[in-house]
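Hi everyone,

Forwarding the result from last night's run.
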Amino acid sequence: MPLLPLATRSNAVAEVYRNFNIVRQIRFLSIILAFIASSLATAVGQRNEFGLFLGMSYYNGELNPGKHIVEVSKPALGVFYDAHINSRYYFRTIASYGQIAANDGLTDVGLNNFRNLQFEARVIDLSGQIHFNFLPYGIDVNSKPYTPYIFVGLALFNVNPSVSSMNTDSATARPTENYSRNLTSVAIPFGAGFKAIFGTFTVGLEWNFRKTFSDDFDGVDNQYKTGNVIDDPVVYPQPQGFQKGLFYTKDWYSFIGLTVSFRPLPKKNACPGMN
């Protein structure tokens, strides 16, 4: 039986690897759903809050190595549910939507100027988190109506980067690159914030980061490839294997903004002696 061509075998291996990644992602999704179910179960009989997140989202990676917020942020929003365990700890489940954009013009690094790419995307994020209040927080006599807090958790996200050349007149951009990709993977969310109670509402300011385990969030490959390869039908003028991205680095994305949540007041006991 004749051997398959090397390119065919390589594509077959790549397909097996992609299927393996899908299985791992489904497994992680199952963990997240179990975490959410645990959060909701814990909420029974506990204080809870429903809220909105309004703010900005941005990314750090090859096309934006170091800038935060200024010049790189796009609108973001989310809805969340907080299940309080006690005055110090609570679970949060949050679904977020954000827009992401960056380009090689954000830095003067030589590789970025040579590559001359830009991308934009929308990211959908589902996260389960455990929060810790530095102060005993709540409306009880021994609690504070404000507190700084930190959190960590697990997130599942989907992003659809659209990559294109910034300048079609540039010699390094011929032929013009213009392609789209789609990625579903997991991330570790963590961050900090400050919140305060105003009647039945809680208003806060929060900055949270997402550490991904992928270098494909922005759709930029680590090396140039020659020929019409899968998912990347561009014949590059650069030699095959020439560096295009950063090796051994993973992409990040972040959210920063305001949180506003509503906590229903507890029902008053009909017996004065029990109030």
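The beta strands are 48-60, 74-84, 89-103, 117-133, 146-159, 162-165, 178-180, 183-198, 201-212, 252-262.

Cheers,
N.
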